[in-house]
Amino acid sequence: MIKKILLFSFFCTSILLLEGGFGYTQKELNSKGKEAADSTLILEYDSLLVIHFHPTAQCSCCINVGNFSKKGIEKFCPKLYKDRRIIFKECNTDEDSSVAQKYKIFGSALGFKKFLKGKEEFKEVESVWEFCEDEDKFLIDFQKELRSFVLGKKEGKSEKKSK
Judging by DSSP bridges, how do beta strands 109-116 and 158-162 pair with one another? Predict the structure, then answer.
Protein backbone atom coordinates (compact mmCIF):
# COMPACT_ATOMS: atom_id res chain seq x y z
CA MET A 1 0.00 0.00 0.00
CA ILE A 2 2.80 2.41 0.91
CA LYS A 3 4.49 1.60 -2.39
CA LYS A 4 1.30 2.59 -4.24
CA ILE A 5 1.05 5.86 -2.30
CA LEU A 6 4.68 6.70 -3.04
CA LEU A 7 4.23 5.89 -6.73
CA PHE A 8 1.06 8.02 -6.85
CA SER A 9 2.87 10.91 -5.13
CA PHE A 10 5.75 10.62 -7.59
CA PHE A 11 3.26 10.58 -10.48
CA CYS A 12 1.51 13.73 -9.22
CA THR A 13 4.83 15.46 -8.63
CA SER A 14 5.80 14.66 -12.21
CA ILE A 15 2.54 16.18 -13.43
CA LEU A 16 3.24 19.34 -11.46
CA LEU A 17 6.70 19.55 -12.96
CA LEU A 18 5.25 19.24 -16.45
CA GLU A 19 2.43 21.72 -15.77
CA GLY A 20 4.46 24.54 -14.33
CA GLY A 21 5.57 23.20 -10.96
CA PHE A 22 3.65 25.61 -8.73
CA GLY A 23 5.46 28.69 -9.94
CA TYR A 24 8.80 27.44 -11.21
CA THR A 25 9.57 28.07 -14.86
CA GLN A 26 10.51 25.07 -16.96
CA LYS A 27 14.06 26.43 -17.17
CA GLU A 28 14.29 26.61 -13.34
CA LEU A 29 12.88 23.10 -13.03
CA ASN A 30 15.40 21.76 -15.55
CA SER A 31 18.25 23.40 -13.64
CA LYS A 32 17.04 22.02 -10.30
CA GLY A 33 16.45 18.56 -11.76
CA LYS A 34 15.61 15.64 -9.52
CA GLU A 35 16.43 17.65 -6.40
CA ALA A 36 13.44 19.95 -7.03
CA ALA A 37 11.09 17.02 -7.57
CA ASP A 38 12.29 15.17 -4.48
CA SER A 39 12.58 18.00 -1.97
CA THR A 40 10.40 20.99 -2.88
CA LEU A 41 7.44 19.66 -4.83
CA ILE A 42 6.45 16.57 -2.85
CA LEU A 43 2.69 16.58 -2.48
CA GLU A 44 1.78 16.13 1.14
CA TYR A 45 -1.92 15.43 0.78
CA ASP A 46 -4.40 12.89 -0.52
CA SER A 47 -6.79 15.59 -1.69
CA LEU A 48 -7.16 19.34 -1.33
CA LEU A 49 -10.19 21.60 -1.10
CA VAL A 50 -10.15 25.29 -1.94
CA ILE A 51 -13.24 26.69 -0.20
CA HIS A 52 -14.75 30.09 -0.96
CA PHE A 53 -16.92 31.11 2.01
CA HIS A 54 -19.44 33.86 1.26
CA PRO A 55 -22.90 35.14 2.17
CA THR A 56 -25.78 35.09 -0.32
CA ALA A 57 -25.30 38.80 -1.12
CA GLN A 58 -21.70 39.27 -2.27
CA CYS A 59 -19.72 42.41 -3.02
CA SER A 60 -17.42 42.59 -6.05
CA CYS A 61 -14.41 41.56 -3.93
CA CYS A 62 -16.18 38.43 -2.68
CA ILE A 63 -17.20 37.49 -6.21
CA ASN A 64 -13.67 38.10 -7.50
CA VAL A 65 -12.04 36.01 -4.76
CA GLY A 66 -14.23 33.06 -5.78
CA ASN A 67 -13.72 33.53 -9.51
CA PHE A 68 -9.99 34.23 -9.27
CA SER A 69 -9.43 31.24 -6.94
CA LYS A 70 -11.13 28.84 -9.32
CA LYS A 71 -9.18 30.34 -12.22
CA GLY A 72 -5.94 29.92 -10.23
CA ILE A 73 -6.58 26.22 -9.66
CA GLU A 74 -7.43 25.70 -13.31
CA LYS A 75 -4.31 27.61 -14.39
CA PHE A 76 -1.72 26.23 -11.94
CA CYS A 77 -3.03 22.69 -11.38
CA PRO A 78 -5.17 21.71 -14.39
CA LYS A 79 -4.44 17.98 -14.25
CA LEU A 80 -4.98 17.72 -10.48
CA TYR A 81 -8.17 19.77 -10.80
CA LYS A 82 -9.44 17.60 -13.64
CA ASP A 83 -8.62 14.44 -11.65
CA ARG A 84 -10.42 15.94 -8.61
CA ARG A 85 -7.32 15.82 -6.38
CA ILE A 86 -7.90 19.55 -5.98
CA ILE A 87 -11.54 20.58 -5.61
CA PHE A 88 -13.01 24.07 -5.64
CA LYS A 89 -16.04 24.44 -3.38
CA GLU A 90 -18.40 27.34 -2.72
CA CYS A 91 -19.83 27.56 0.81
CA ASN A 92 -22.75 29.96 1.24
CA THR A 93 -22.47 30.87 4.91
CA ASP A 94 -26.11 32.00 5.05
CA GLU A 95 -27.28 28.56 3.93
CA ASP A 96 -24.65 26.43 5.70
CA SER A 97 -23.40 28.34 8.73
CA SER A 98 -22.26 25.16 10.50
CA VAL A 99 -19.36 24.70 8.06
CA ALA A 100 -18.23 28.31 8.54
CA GLN A 101 -18.50 27.94 12.33
CA LYS A 102 -16.47 24.72 12.23
CA TYR A 103 -13.54 26.68 10.78
CA LYS A 104 -14.22 29.88 12.75
CA ILE A 105 -15.09 31.81 9.59
CA PHE A 106 -17.07 34.97 10.26
CA GLY A 107 -18.05 36.49 6.91
CA SER A 108 -16.36 36.05 3.57
CA ALA A 109 -13.15 34.02 3.42
CA LEU A 110 -10.99 31.73 1.37
CA GLY A 111 -9.71 28.51 2.90
CA PHE A 112 -7.50 25.58 1.97
CA LYS A 113 -8.17 22.16 3.46
CA LYS A 114 -5.95 19.16 2.84
CA PHE A 115 -6.47 15.54 3.73
CA LEU A 116 -3.66 13.11 4.45
CA LYS A 117 -3.96 9.61 5.89
CA GLY A 118 -7.14 10.26 7.88
CA LYS A 119 -6.04 13.68 9.10
CA GLU A 120 -7.08 17.06 7.80
CA GLU A 121 -5.59 20.51 8.00
CA PHE A 122 -7.33 23.83 7.34
CA LYS A 123 -5.92 27.27 6.69
CA GLU A 124 -7.75 30.53 6.13
CA VAL A 125 -5.97 32.54 3.44
CA GLU A 126 -6.28 36.15 4.49
CA SER A 127 -3.78 37.75 2.12
CA VAL A 128 -5.99 37.32 -0.97
CA TRP A 129 -8.20 40.24 0.08
CA GLU A 130 -5.36 42.68 -0.65
CA PHE A 131 -5.60 41.82 -4.33
CA CYS A 132 -9.32 41.19 -4.81
CA GLU A 133 -9.55 43.88 -7.49
CA ASP A 134 -6.35 42.92 -9.36
CA GLU A 135 -6.50 39.46 -10.93
CA ASP A 136 -2.81 39.25 -11.87
CA LYS A 137 -1.58 40.11 -8.35
CA PHE A 138 -4.26 37.89 -6.84
CA LEU A 139 -3.10 34.90 -8.90
CA ILE A 140 0.54 35.46 -7.89
CA ASP A 141 -0.43 35.56 -4.21
CA PHE A 142 -2.84 32.63 -4.57
CA GLN A 143 -0.13 30.51 -6.16
CA LYS A 144 2.34 31.41 -3.38
CA GLU A 145 -0.20 30.63 -0.64
CA LEU A 146 -1.27 27.35 -2.25
CA ARG A 147 2.32 26.18 -2.69
CA SER A 148 3.14 27.15 0.91
CA PHE A 149 0.13 25.22 2.21
CA VAL A 150 0.81 22.13 0.07
CA LEU A 151 4.43 22.04 1.18
CA GLY A 152 3.35 22.30 4.82
CA LYS A 153 4.70 25.71 5.76
CA LYS A 154 2.75 27.08 8.72
CA GLU A 155 1.53 30.61 8.07
CA GLY A 156 -1.77 32.02 9.28
CA LYS A 157 -4.67 30.12 10.89
CA SER A 158 -4.52 26.37 10.74
CA GLU A 159 -5.89 23.43 12.61
CA LYS A 160 -5.26 19.71 12.50
CA LYS A 161 -7.92 17.13 13.13
CA SER A 162 -8.15 13.39 13.05
CA LYS A 163 -11.07 11.63 11.49
Answer: unpaired
Dihedral of CA 141/101/67/59: which sign? Answer: negative
**HSE, side-chain direction, 13 A CA sphere, residue 20:** 13
Give the angle 134-136-140 at the CA atoms, nearest 5°: 115
CA-to-CA distance for 12 and 14, rounded, in angstroms?
5
One domain for residues 19 and 70:
no
Q: Which domain holds residue 153?
A: 44-162
Q: How many angstroms separate the CA atoms of 37 and 41, rounded?
A: 5
- Asked if residue 110 and residue 66 are part of one domain, the reply reads yes
Read off the pLDDT band of 20 (50, 70, 90). Answer: very low
Q: With a threshold of 0.70, does the pTM exceed it?
A: no
Query: Do 136 and 66 fall into the same domain?
Result: yes
pLDDT average, residue stretch 107-122: 90
Based on the fold, state whether residues 34 and 65 are members of the same structural domain. Answer: no
Phi, psi (rounded to 5 degrees) for 94: -75, -35
Number of domains in the chain: 2
Average pLDDT of the chain to the nearest whole number: 74
As a whole number of angstroms, the distance between CA 103 and CA 112 comes to: 11
